[in-house]
Design the sequence.
């Protein structure tokens, strides 16, 4: 994730980090009430690490877990009520490239057994290598 020393990120930095278009993040702000980056005195959005983690969770729910927007809103509420939202945001996931919010997947069912997948040694190895690649990219872009 982003560099813990930096306090605020612009929408462009967050979009690049999450491989999204800035308009997708702005759209998500209208749909996901928990995603509320503050605005500077000049009116520019300033994302904190918590906002970036939440946006990453939203991306995972929509693009990887195939939730609809309504389903993702409900899942975020459930995770927040259980106090699991921060832990869910920090789970590594494969990077995806999106063309925008018009390509949002339409299925509403989550994966059947995510815990069983983590037990597979090959998947654990793949996740570790993915995490290392992510760290290298973050370091490259000073995030």
Sequence:
């Amino acid at each position: 994730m982003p560099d813990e020393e930096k306090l605020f990120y612009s929408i462009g930095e967050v979009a690049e980090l999450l491989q999204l278009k800035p308009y997708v993040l702005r759209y998500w702000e209208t749909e996901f009430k928990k995603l509320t980056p503050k605005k500077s005195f000049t009116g520019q959005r300033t994302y904190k690490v918590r906002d970036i983690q939440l946006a990453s969770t939203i991306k995972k729910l929509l693009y990887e877990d195939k939730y609809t927007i309504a389903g993702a809103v409900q899942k975020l509420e459930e995770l927040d009520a259980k106090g699991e939202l921060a832990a869910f945001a920090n789970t590594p996931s494969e990077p995806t490239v999106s063309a925008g919010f018009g390509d949002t997947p339409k299925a509403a069912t989550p994966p059947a057994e995510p815990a069983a997948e983590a037990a597979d040694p090959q998947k654990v190895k793949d996740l570790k290598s993915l995490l290392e690649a992510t760290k290298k990219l973050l370091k490259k872009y000073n995030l």
Summary: The longest strand covers residues 38-39. The helical segments are 11-18, 22-31, 49-64, 69-82, 85-89, 114-118, 121-140. The chain has a mean pLDDT of 76. The chain has one domain: 11-140.
